[in-house]
Structure formats: C-alpha cells, structure tokens
Amino acid sequence: MKIVSVIVTFNRLKKLKSTIQQSLKENFEKIIIVNNNSTDGTKEYLDALTDDRFIIKHLSENIGGAGGFNVGFDTALKETLADWIVCYDDDAYPKEGAINQFENLKLDEDVASVAGAVFLPNGEVSVMNKVRINPFKNIRNFFNTFVKKKSIYIDEKIYRSSVVVEIDASTFVGYFVRTSVVRKEGLPRKELFIYADDLIYTLQLTRLGYRHLFVPSVKFIHACSTLLNNQDVYDPIWKVYYTYRNRIEMYRVSSRWLYFPITLLQLFPWYRKKQFYQNSQLYVKLLRLAVIDALKQDFSKSHSELLEFIERNQ
Question: What contacts 310, CB < 8 A, 6 or more positions away?
Fold first, then answer.
C-alpha cells in the first residue's frame, strides 16, 4: 500500500515546520507540499529540504486551500504511484503511528475513503473537523435529524472508541481517498477557493454511492484557532463571501432541490450577524453577492476581483 500525503500551505512557516517534522515520522511514499505563493520565507525553506520523499509545488498565486488541494491531488495522480492520498492543512499532522494504524485496516474494496479522528493539541475534539452524516441522503437520516432531532455530527464518545462508523462528509484534515476514485470522479473543485470545498467533495462522492468510513483509531492533530467568541465571524472580511457562497453550494449538493428553501431560512440569521462586524454595510453587500452567485452557480469570480469589490465598497 503506497500512501502519499498532500499538504497545502500559505504564510504559516512556523506551523508548517512542525507539520513537516511530524509527517517525516510516518510511512509516506511521498509528501507533496503545495505552496500557495507564500511570502514569509516558506519557498526558501522548502527548497532547502533534502529528503527525496518531498515533491514541492510552488504556485505563482494564492489559489486558496481548494485550489491547493486540487493541485496536490493532481500531482499525486501524475507524479506518484500512490494507492491512497491523505491530505491535511499546514497546521495539522498525523499523530505518531496514525499511518501505521491506517495500513493495518482491513478495508473492503468498496470503501472509497476514510476520515481519521481530528483533535486539538489539548486533546479535545476539533469542532471544525467533526465528521457528519447527510440528513438528506435517505428517509432514515431525514427522520432522525428533523423529527427525532438527532445531531448530524458523530457523537464525541465514538472519537475515543474503536468503533468504525459509516459517514457522508468530512474535512480535508486526515482524509484518505483511493487514487482510483479520484481518477474516476475528478479532483476537488479549485474554483471554491476556501471553505466547504472538502465537505462538498466528500458529499459528492457519497451521493454517488461510494462508502466513506470514520475510523477513530487513525488520529490527527489540528493546531487551529477557534471562532471569535464562538460566533460565525470572519476576519479578514473577504472570507464572508466564500463562507456563504460555498455553504449554499454545500446545501445544493447535499439536499438537491431543497437547497433553495434551506437557503431562504438561513438568510435572516446570516443577515443578523452584521452586528459582529465593524463595517456592517460591507458585510451585507458581501452576503448579498455570495447568495446571488451561489444561486446562479457562478464560481467564476477570482480572489483579486473579490478584493477589488471590497475596495470599491469600503
């Protein structure tokens, strides 16, 4: 079994060094690092690495996490003989022995992907990386979620057990996927830039009938920061656009035609979040732009165009 890791980085050299140090302890065939045009010395550091397991890709512009994973997956297909790809951020890494745990799994051939259990450095479950089921996948899931009021997230008790659970979606931290599936079904969508690109990718695969397992014995650490005051608040403010545009697309992928009424129900709560932003008018304009583009399924806006929009509306 040949396993290749894909790491996407942007201006987090200190954390990247720790991620690389931990990754080198694992049994990877290759370690692909996609540098999203960092300006903090990342390029010079990566160019000085000598281990022949590294494949370094320096990009001429920042194309976001989604674009970076698109490039990384593509590189794994074209430049390695990998059976599996595992991906994670530049502030995350496999807990020592995680890859050995994965190699020892007895996976059926119809299992396309596996999600590891992601924890914060203090041992708590990483909230932003919680795995989930799709409440719109079938009648049972719909009934459990909307009638019995069960959470779409897997119970945290399972994270500390050895129970393997079938799921529908997970993030790109500790996500393993067969290269044969990626070749057949395609790469992550680079036009999403950041946010929900991983959930959309995994939801699309499970909606096509592929099996996705949560295996808590395969552990990852994510040294990430939490949301501001536990609110869905983003800084810098341009992140607002990607958050809501991609969230609506995630609703579309998971619920199909129901995504439109779901979006309508979310609009007022999203609008009310303007109170958390100093420039509330700009927040509302970005929210409106995100909703319009999402409903039109228009993902053509470049990051530079978005920044120009913000500059004009400051």
Answer: 237, 238, 282, 286
